[in-house]
Amino acid sequence: MKNQKVALITGANRGIGFETARQLGQKDVAVIIAARQLSDAVEAAAILTAEGITATGIELDITNASDRQKAVSFIEETYGKLDILINNAGIAPKETIAGSKSVATPPEEFEELFNVNFFSVIYLTNDLLPLIKKSEAGRIVNLSSILASLTVHSLPDSPIATWRKLSYNASKTALNAFTVHFADELKGTAIKVNSASPGWVKTNIGGFDEAPMTVEEGAKTSVDLALIGEDGPNGRFIHLGEDVAW
């Protein structure tokens, strides 16, 4: 195997994650497609392989400690390092992320969304950190959302006022806090950590009718942050090359 960069993309069997893997693969990165079901991961990897991309599918439910350890073992045995981790996997409330629901949110909704969107991202990142430290230029990209922005939500005429679903928004705000803290913790190393705001994209979460952005456009921020150079941003919240207000 030639000395390719290696990227793990969680939740990569469809949507933004799959397109992120495709675009990275087109830039000669070996991509590991992670999905909760092995069959989904293998099928997605086969599509990319047929396009000439170096792709492998693995089973990875990020909330499952055993799955996380198996992923670490696979990457260590197969590649010996990890250059790029894109924490793309995430969920929204089962009904919708539109509307406003705060104190009326069921406890199980808070617990499920924070477990997937926040806690498990931290656990997986920590599990993989020794392999990322072996990279000459480790990059960690956390998939956030404009809905995480406290600044934008607090505007009197906020453009996202109709999307105040506390469980989802707060889980992504917490993820942004992780980005800031972890980037600072890793200062002085070759690793950079950033949050990506993909935009309002035609996906299962964003909706296919009203969302203005294609998945190709939505993946671009993650891809760019995964490939930034030594002088690139660190500990920032980015959408298409521009800073987003925290």
Automatic annotation (TrEMBL):
<dbReference type="InterPro" id="IPR036291">
    <property type="entry name" value="NAD(P)-bd_dom_sf"/>
</dbReference>
<dbReference type="InterPro" id="IPR002347">
    <property type="entry name" value="SDR_fam"/>
</dbReference>
<comment type="similarity">
    <text>Belongs to the short-chain dehydrogenases/reductases (SDR) family.</text>
</comment>
<protein>
    <submittedName>
        <fullName>Uncharacterized protein</fullName>
    </submittedName>
</protein>
<dbReference type="InterPro" id="IPR045313">
    <property type="entry name" value="CBR1-like"/>
</dbReference>
<keyword id="KW-0560">Oxidoreductase</keyword>
<dbReference type="GO" id="GO:0016616">
    <property type="term" value="F:oxidoreductase activity, acting on the CH-OH group of donors, NAD or NADP as acceptor"/>
</dbReference>
<dbReference type="Pfam" id="PF00106">
    <property type="entry name" value="adh_short"/>
</dbReference>
<dbReference type="InterPro" id="IPR020904">
    <property type="entry name" value="Sc_DH/Rdtase_CS"/>
</dbReference>
<keyword id="KW-0521">NADP</keyword>
